[in-house]
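Problem: given the chain below (185 residues), write out its structure.
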Amino acid sequence: MCRLNLDEDEGTFLTVQASVCSLLVGDEKIELLHYDYERNKARYTEAHIQVNARHEAFERYLAETRKKGINGLNKIHLPVGGRRFRPALEDLLECLIVEDLVAPKNDWETTLNQSRDRYRRKQAAAVVRRDPTCAVEELERLGYQVSPPGDANRRTLLDRLVRPRQRGDVPDGERQKPRNSRRRR
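Solution.
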């Protein structure tokens, strides 16, 4: 599942707002794990994995601390690299193939590598857009000469793109409206 919108800053780039990639096993399709991404998540890391498993010592700890209850391991959101550095779907597919959990199709490696490369390049471009100062510093360290934009509006946009966002901040257009809300007449 993947929900897309235009980015909140420029309204130009297609952006993932939320995605879930689950690994289901057996004829009953029981979930083993899922990668989850929810942009602007307030309570836990935006990109995380949840594993539907049990671990006796960990569950004993959770019970003692009264944190998550029975089957608490599957309620833990384990971080996987954040907004820009989260695993690609291709990473999960490759894992399933190299662990001999699924049979690959011909030329699978080339196909996955090409697709993963496109994904990672888009993520790298997004990193540069969000932190151009860091990109300029690294390019100059490598010997490139970089000239800043002359347009004052462009500088304002860049400043807005790299400002730190507080946990739980949600851009105006993305706030969820309460269900069953009705306007008063």
